[in-house]
């Protein structure tokens, strides 16, 4: 169900760990970066780092993503891509428990 926050902005429903883990294939690929879930299915073949993007597919890519120096160089480009890939937030309970490994 769609909800709104105090500023009346649409809030995406939160995504459970169980739901996230279903999207762990090349053609159905969700990853988490800093608690946000992104559908990168259409980007796998375009990604300059190729299939490395799938290392933690269906799970948490925060660490690998933030540690990759190439991503820092092109951070504006990446931000605009991530806006398009955004699916919703990982459920706060699952983030609290460390999220997927
Ligand atoms: C929304 C856009 C992008 C996402 C979500 C993304 C995500 C990722 C992830 C999850 C990894 C694996 C990190 C690890 O665990 O080691 C990775 C690796 C990498 N990415 Fe990206 N990436 C994006 C865009 C880009 C762009 C634009 C570039 C190039 C300018 C790039 C270059 C690389 C390189 C060089 C690697 C390492 C490849 C390897 O280890 O063989 N990525 N990326």
Automatic annotation (TrEMBL):
Q: Per its UniProt record, what Pfam families does this chain match?
A: Cyt-b5
Q: Is the Amino-acid biosynthesis keyword given for this protein? A: no
Residue span(s) of domain Cytochrome b5 heme-binding: 12-91
Query: InterPro entries annotated for this entry?
Result: Cyt_B5-like_heme/steroid-bd (IPR001199), Cyt_B5-like_heme/steroid_sf (IPR036400), Cytochrome_b5 (IPR050668)
Keywords from the UniProt entry? Heme, Iron, Metal-binding
Against Gene3D superfamilies, the record matches this protein to: Cytochrome b5-like heme/steroid binding domain (3.10.120.10)
Q: Does the keyword Heme apply?
A: yes
Q: Record's family?
A: Belongs to the cytochrome b5 family.
User: Under which name does UniProt file this protein?
Assistant: Cytochrome b5 heme-binding domain-containing protein
């Amino acid at each position: 169900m769609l909800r709104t926050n105090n500023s009346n902005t649409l809030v995406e429903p939160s995504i459970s760990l169980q739901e996230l883990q279903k999207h762990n294939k090349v053609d159905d690929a969700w990853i988490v970066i800093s608690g946000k879930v992104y559908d990168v299915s259409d980007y796998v073949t375009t990604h300059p780092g190729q299939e490395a993007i799938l290392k933690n597919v269906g799970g948490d890519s925060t660490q690998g993503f933030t540690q990759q120096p190439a991503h820092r160089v092109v951070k504006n480009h990446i931000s605009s891509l991530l806006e398009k890939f955004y699916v919703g937030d990982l459920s706060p309970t699952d983030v609290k428990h460390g999220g997927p490994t």
